[in-house]
Design goal:
Blueprint lengths: L2 H24 L12 E5 L6 E6 L2 H7 L5 E4 L19
Antiparallel strand pairs: 1-2, 1-3
Length: 92
């Protein structure tokens, strides 16, 4: 009926759920609202859909979405904190 394409989509969805679950469980001292990834998948349409932001790249999001789900940039993503300034050794 669904064939290999349906099975492949189901595997991708299961893999995405497993990765997201591991990420949330693996960092138990962070609240789930603090998880900060740059890409989200929207299910059930843009206006009333649910946004799940657990993707590090657009490609990763596109590979795990199913059917009409959409990938969008996370509007709350702030990126990593800036690296500390490195001091130069004194010459002289």
């Amino acid at each position: 009926m669904g064939g290999p394409a349906l099975i492949s989509k189901m595997h991708k969805a299961a893999f995405a759920i497993a990765i997201l679950g591991a990420a949330l469980i693996g960092d138990g001292d962070k609240a789930s609202a603090e998880v900060n990834y740059p890409w989200c998948v929207i299910t059930s349409g843009l206006s009333e859909g649910v946004m799940s932001c657990g993707f590090v790249s657009y490609q990763q999001c596109m590979q795990t979405r199913v059917g009409t789900e959409m990938c969008v940039q996370n509007p709350r993503y702030q990126g990593p904190p800036p690296a500390p300034a490195r001091s130069r050794p004194r010459q002289g």
